[in-house]
């Protein structure tokens, strides 16, 4: 029986790997900052992602790249809400990448189905109760530190065990707060407070996170892993992203979060065929 992810007002079958397309509406994101910063431009971009194969759209109004500064609530709302209203018309589930309860509330009112929080609902003291009250799906991601500090000197005794333990604890916190178990995804947070070796260890152990009993989301798109290993600029990382996406899907990822939806759609489809043994 295929698993399902229950979203607010929608259901996403996880009978096959799903693609989350990234819609950044920030002026300073590491990959595409400023390219889709207005509602009209973001909606055009989002439509192209859906046509290329995106199953979910992830709208973000605050960059969480290493060293990024926090954006005031009012500014984030001004960036995100008009875009969510437009993107929600496209007929696919909409996720909002935010750490702030006020943005969560307004985004859901505008049509969002999922909250994607890089702090696993720990940044804002009202976030956990807000998600429970809204009955919205949530992705809990692991991050050591904050975007401002996370890459200063990340250290772990056992990165896989510590990240897994953290996600288990946050899942239980959500359940105790009233979040439905079938509304919860987990994400090990590749690139968020991790060195290259930490990221590789997590990628090698994705099945550990796929076995937690909740859908697994993996986001590796255009991140510095390939840049640091092979000295590639952001715009030169697509082939490395393809390898990472194929690996993620073959090791249990239910959703992959990507910029290059069309290319990664092909990677996901081919990987799925290979996994099923079809010719």
UniProtKB/TrEMBL annotation:
Pathway note: Cofactor biosynthesis; tetrahydrofolate biosynthesis; 7,8-dihydrofolate from 2-amino-4-hydroxy-6-hydroxymethyl-7,8-dihydropteridine diphosphate and 4-aminobenzoate: step 1/2
**What's one GO-annotated cellular component?**
cytosol
Catalysed conversion reaction: (7,8-dihydropterin-6-yl)methyl diphosphate + 4-aminobenzoate = 7,8-dihydropteroate + diphosphate
Q: Which PROSITE patterns does the record match to this protein?
A: DHPS_1, DHPS_2, PTERIN_BINDING
Checking PANTHER family in the record gives: FOLATE SYNTHESIS PROTEINS, FOLIC ACID SYNTHESIS PROTEIN FOL1
Q: What does this protein do?
A: Catalyzes the condensation of para-aminobenzoate (pABA) with 6-hydroxymethyl-7,8-dihydropterin diphosphate (DHPt-PP) to form 7,8-dihydropteroate (H2Pte), the immediate precursor of folate derivatives.
Could you tell me which residue ranges the Pterin-binding domain spans?
Answer: 17-269
Question: Which domain of life does the UniProt lineage start with?
Answer: Bacteria
Is Ion transport set as a keyword in this record? Answer: no
Protein name from the UniProt record: Dihydropteroate synthase
Mind listing the GO molecular function terms for this protein?
A: dihydropteroate synthase activity; metal ion binding
Cite the SUPFAM superfamilies for this sequence.
Answer: Dihydropteroate synthetase-like (SSF51717)
- State the similarity comment: Belongs to the DHPS family.
Keywords (alphabetical) are: Folate biosynthesis, Magnesium, Metal-binding, Transferase
Q: What is its EC number?
A: 2.5.1.15
GO biological process: any one? Answer: folic acid biosynthetic process
């Amino acid at each position: 029986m295929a698993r399902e992810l229950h979203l607010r007002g929608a259901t996403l079958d996880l009978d096959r790997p799903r693609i989350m397309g990234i819609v950044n509406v920030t002026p300073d994101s590491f990959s595409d900052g400023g390219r889709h910063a207005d509602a009209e431009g973001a909606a055009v971009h989002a439509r192209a992602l859906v046509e290329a194969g995106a199953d979910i759209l992830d709208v973000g109004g605050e960059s969480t790249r290493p060293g990024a500064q926090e954006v005031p609530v009012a500014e984030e709302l001004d960036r995100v809400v008009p875009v969510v209203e437009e993107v929600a018309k496209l007929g696919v589930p909409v996720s909002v990448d935010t750490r702030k309860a006020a943005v969560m509330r307004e985004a859901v009112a505008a049509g969002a189905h999922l909250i994607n929080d890089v702090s696993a609902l720990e940044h804002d003291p009202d976030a956990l109760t807000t998600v429970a009250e809204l009955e919205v799906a949530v992705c809990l991601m692991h991050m050591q530190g904050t975007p401002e500090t996370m890459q200063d000197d990340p250290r772990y005794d056992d990165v896989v065990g510590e990240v897994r333990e953290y996600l288990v604890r946050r899942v239980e916190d959500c359940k105790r707060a009233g979040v439905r178990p079938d509304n919860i995804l987990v994400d090990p947070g590749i690139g968020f407070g991790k060195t290259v070796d930490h990221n590789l260890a997590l990628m090698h152990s994705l099945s550990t996170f796929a076995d937690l009993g909740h859908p697994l989301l993996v986001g590796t798109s255009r991140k510095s892993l390939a840049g640091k290993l092979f000295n590639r600029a952001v715009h030169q990382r697509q082939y490395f992203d393809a390898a990472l996406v194929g690996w993620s899907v073959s090791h249990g990822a239910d959703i992959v979060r990507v910029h290059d939806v069309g290319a990664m759609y092909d990677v996901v489809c081919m990987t799925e065929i290979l996994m099923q043994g079809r010719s």
